[in-house]
Design a protein that fits this description.
Layout (H helix, E strand, L loop, with lengths): L1 E7 L2 E8 L1 H22 L6 H38 L5 E5 H11 L4 H9 L2 H12 L3 E5 L20 E3 L8 E3 H15 L10 E8 L6 H29 L5 H17 L5
Parallel strand pairs: 2-7, 3-4
Antiparallel strand pairs: 1-2, 5-6
The protein binds zinc ion (ZN).
The site of zinc ion has 8 residues, from loops.
Length: 270
């Protein structure tokens, strides 16, 4: 997901949120389910081993579903933060449905990118983003938004993650996802892909979702953190009693424990 906003006349802020984590989650699921499926096919239906394997498959699918939901929440939270920080009034989203129709008619998009598009749970991310910003989403046809050069309107076929304009006079380069977002931004404001000026600065921020922790990892982490907090507070208590000041030890205690808790709470962004 990528977001673009005009900050002032000469600056566009772009936030790109990497979707690689979702593909990794799905790859893991496909592998695990495939292995279980193979074992299940060798079992007699209804046997104890069969039932055990079916339960394991169900568990893998359930966990994947939760991880993907968490991923969509992380992505939409980061996107919502961009919207909130820039205090934007409108939220315009490029419409995938337009693309898919076009693909069918022209058959231009490769199988690989089509699959990536369908694997991206975009509808749910949009719904979450709407819930988190309360702005209401406007849809806009995004055909050629990722190909058109934002500086000179030449159409290029980007290869890889970088966009490079082939027009020798222009030579515009940017992250591929930023190009699409900037074009949709221009279309939303001007009604078409109006080129941005030559002296416009594009500030790009890259973000990505973090891996969801398993309950065991979380438990181990909390045990370590609790031990650290206890050691810290006892050390500070000792220091306090050695100084023998007439302060309030209870207050000091509570402040140290919250201090030690803040860093690990900010690790996982839910
Ligand atoms: Zn160009």
């Amino acid at each position: 997901m990528a977001l673009a906003t005009w900050v002032d006349d000469k600056t566009i802020d772009v936030t790109i949120i990497n979707g690689r984590q979702a593909r990794a989650i799905k790859r893991q699921r496909n592998k695990a389910v495939g292995q279980l499926q193979h074992k299940i096919s060798k079992c007699r239906p209804g046997s104890k081993r069969y039932r055990r394997l079916v339960t394991a498959r169900k568990k893998v699918n359930g966990k994947t579903k939760l991880s993907l939901r968490d991923f969509d929440h992380q992505v939409s939270r980061k996107a919502a933060n961009h919207v909130i920080n820039h205090n934007t009034g409108r939220l315009i989203v490029g419409d995938v449905r337009g693309i898919e129709k076009e693909t069918k008619a022209k058959g231009r998009m490769g199988r690989h990118s089509r699959q990536q598009l369908s694997q991206w749970s975009r509808g749910r991310q949009e719904r979450y983003l709407n819930e988190k910003t309360n702005l209401g989403i406007e849809h806009l046809n995004e055909s050629y938004s990722s190909q058109t050069c934002p500086a000179c309107k030449t159409r290029n076929r980007p290869s890889g993650r970088h966009y490079r304009c082939k027009n020798p006079i222009c030579g515009f380069t940017c992250h591929r996802d930023a190009v699409g977002a900037i074009n949709i931004l221009q279309k939303a404001i001007e009604g078409e892909y109006v080129p941005i000026g030559p002296d416009v600065t594009i500030r790009v921020t890259y973000l990505r979702a973090v891996e969801r922790w398993s309950p065991d990892q979380r438990k181990a982490h909390h045990m370590v953190q609790r031990r650290k907090a206890r050691a810290l507070s006892s050390a500070q208590n000792r220091a306090l009693s050695e100084a023998s000041q007439i302060s309030k030890p209870k207050l000091a205690n509570s402040s140290t424990s919250t201090n030690s808790l803040v860093p690990d709470q900010s690790v996982v962004v839910a």
